[in-house]
Amino acid sequence: MRYFEDAKQIWQTQVPKRGQADTVAGELLRSVEKLRDEATRNGNINWGDGHTRLLAYLHRHLLEQGALPTEEQLVMAGDLDRLADYEHPETDSLVYDRISDGVVLWARAHPGAVAHEHDPSLQI
User: Fold this and answer.
1) Structure-model confidence comparison of residues 109 and 65, the more confident one
2) Residue 114 domain-assigned?
3) Is residue 124 part of a domain?
4) Which of 106, 36, 93 is nearest to 64 (CA)?
5) In terms of Cα–Cα distance, which of 89, 118, 122, 92 is closest to 26?
6) In a domain, 44, yes or no
7) CA–CA separation, 110 vs 93, rounded Å?
8) pLDDT in tens, 66-104
9) Rounded distance, CA 119 to CA 122, Å?
10) Residue 65's pLDDT is what?
11) Distance between CA atoms of 62 and 109, rounded to whole angstroms?
């Protein structure tokens, strides 16, 4: 992970112990870790609508125009597509670490705390 300290700072300041984050950067990082946990700890056996929603949230924000350099977006798109194949869980930490780095780059491109609108249907 290239931006571990930055990701750690986002985690400590923007990701709550329970529930959704109040900022987009916090929710993006929370989403990565929820997906990592489900794949590595459970083999995606509990994959459901909530996981699909988290993945869509990552897609929406990390692949938006101008959020990341073009080369980073291509890698990110491939990594997110890999996670979408939930029947074959991705357990390689490098994929999740690259996505977390993408979250840091997104946060740098969007300085300040961009508010996350909570999804009342999201239960994970």
Assistant:
1) 109
2) no
3) no
4) 106
5) 118
6) yes
7) 26
8) 889 999 999 999 999 999 999 999 999 999 999 999 999
9) 5
10) 84
11) 11
Distance CA 21, CA 118 (A): 8
Entry pTM: 0.96
Report how far residue 92's alpha carbon sits from residue 41's, in angstroms, rounded to the nearest whole number: 12
Q: Which two three-digit tokens encode residue 35?
A: 């997906």
**What are the strands, taking DSSP E only, across 1-118?**
none
Contacts of 33 (CB under 8 A, 6+ apart): 11, 15, 96
Q: Which domain holds residue 99?
A: 4-17+26-109
Number of domains in the chain: 1
* Residue 121 within a domain: no
pLDDT digits (tens, 9 = 90+) for 17-74: 999 999 999 999 999 999 999 999 999 999 999 999 999 999 999 999 888 999 999 9
